[in-house]
Every structure is written in structure tokens, then in C-alpha cells.
Amino acid sequence: LDLEGQINTPETDPSIILLKIDDRALEEVGAWPWNRSVHAELIDKISAFGPRVIAYDVLFVEPSDDANDAALAQALKDSGKVVLPHTFTQKPNTVGDQIAFNPIRVFRENASDIGHVALAPEEDGVARRFDLTYKIGGETFPHLMVSSLARAGVSPWTDSPPPDAAFVRYGARGEIREASAATVLDGSALPEYFRDAIVLVG
Fold first, then answer.
1. Measuring CA to CA, how many Å separate 141 from each of 42, 85, 94, 99, 148?
2. Tally of CB atoms within 10 A around 151
3. Which of 59, 152, 163, 182 is 20 to 30 Å from the Cα of 143, by its Cα?
């Protein structure tokens, strides 16, 4: 499977941008976790560049303070393009049953959509596949990327539902366009770089 994945790695869509919360961003903004107002500022600035969608892969499953949560909720509402992640947790008073662990209500209500980010590495620690749809008790939860592609209007599954799982294709470093979140926050990013892009923040 690993060999096949290297041989048959598809070309990367040039509209995809990985906006990294990396060492540079942490040095300029400060230690993690960031204040919710920083996330609001980052979303405002990305949105102003005119991307198709922003998949913001940061879990906001617990509240912080009212003012900063309100700032982030407003940024989500103003953008109208942000898809947030959720995960799963054990259902209370059960053994092994799971329920969705969603962003707090004010974020979920103002986000464009949500999608799960559950990922289970295999025994050797390598993640080779992930669930495009996760099913619990008759309910189906799409992956963050499925929801994001649908919002971007480029879903390859427009005429049929997505398959249950997808294989991870490991391409060479540098195949995906990327930038530090610091470049957006400090104003050095080029707006045209993000125009009509599928922006993955994480």
C-alpha cells in the first residue's frame, strides 16, 4: 500500500494552500493556545483575500471568555466561508459508544459548516487512511475535507455520496503551496496568493 501510494500520488490541486500555525507564527504571536481574538483576526484577513473556503483545523470545543468568543463568532459570521472541525468523545454512561464533540454553539451557529477530523494511525504509527464519512447510530458525519470541498464547489462526489474511507497519498515536500500564518497576521502575505484558493489552516 505504501509503494502504491507513492507511485499513484495524484497531482496536487494548485488552488490548495496550507497556512501553517508554525514556529514562526508562534514566535510572533505567542505560545499556544492563542487568544480567540487572534483567530478572529486571522480569519478576517484571510477572508478579505477572497478564498473559496477556509478549512480552519483548530478545535474550539470549550468556551474561553465572552468577549474573545464573541469576536471569533463575528469573524466566522462575517466570513461565511469557514469550516470548523469536530471530533468524537465517549457517550456518557456507555462503554465504547461515541458522540460528536462539536465546536461550542456560538461557533457552530456562525461557521459555514463543520466536519470531523478523527484519525486513527495504524499499528506502526503511520496514518494510511481516514474516514471520509463517520457513522454513529445511523447518523453520518462528513470529514472536514468533504465539507470544505462541498463549500468550495469542487467536490468530486457531487453525483454520489463520498466513499466511506480514503487513502492518504504522501507526496514530496513542497508540492502543496504553503505559508506561515504569521505572513497574514503581519500583513506581508500577497492577497492574490489566496484569491479563489482552498485554504487549510492548521
1. 27, 11, 20, 11, 13
2. 21
3. 182
